[in-house]
Write the structure tokens for this entry.
Amino acid sequence: MNTTVESWGRRAAKNEALFREVNERIFSATEAFEAEGLEVLCECSNAECAETLHLSITEYRLIRARGNRFAVLAGHEDPTAESIVERNERFIVVEKIGESGDVARDLDPRG
Ligand SMILES: [Zn+2]
């Protein structure tokens, strides 16, 4: 295994997985109150992105049901490593493909 060189795709997937972990904490905190929805971090591959988007509990659950899906803002998608599975006026759901998808699934806190 090569540990010195990490492809951009792997790094990007790790950033997204990190945002997902933060959002999972926001989600568990919010779910307890049966909130209408939650404000989560954009889960794009840019580690410096600090923008947020609004999801309903149901939308969030649907995205999290798949280990390689992420919610990002329009324009934050990366067409080289992900495909768009859903798009609406608030956010885009992307599915990581190839190697990035494997990394995303490996790092899924829901297993
Ligand atoms: Zn973003």
